[in-house]
# Entry
Amino acid sequence: MTTDTDALTHYLHTHIPVSRALGITVAEAGETVVVRAPFAPNINHKNTVFGGSLQVVATLACWTLLHVNARPLADGDIVISRSNISYISPVTGDFEARASLPESAVWRRFVAGLERHGKARIALQATIENQGRLAVDYRGTFALVPHATP
# Structure
């Protein structure tokens, strides 16, 4: 499945405003999602990318991956319940986070949970490289749950 990246970028900017502030755009959307961000609005006092920006971009890569691939299967809210990030080396320029669907058996278990219970959890991973080398390894547990009632 491939989705319009401009429409996804607009969706993020509208529903998750920090994405606009950080200059985030969706560059690729399907079984792999690539979320990009420019260096300038994400810089820190060391002239590298701020760790919080790296966390947000990696989280949004995984969130968008689930949004693109699970929305056709079930309606609900995508939430994150846990994340872990390893900062391996500094990021010194424009950057992107890449997230791909997990192996098919893991995805099938997630889909089966949606079908059976109307909600399910899944572990996803995103990576960020700097100059061709792994700089950030992100792992998060996300869930698709029924819409919360106000």
User: Anything to note?
Assistant: Residues 5-74+85-102+124-139 form a domain with the Thiol Ester Dehydrase; Chain A fold (CATH 3.10.129.10). The beta strands are 25-29, 32-37, 77-87, 95-100, 120-130, 133-145. The mean pLDDT is 95. The two ends are 32 Å apart (CA to CA).
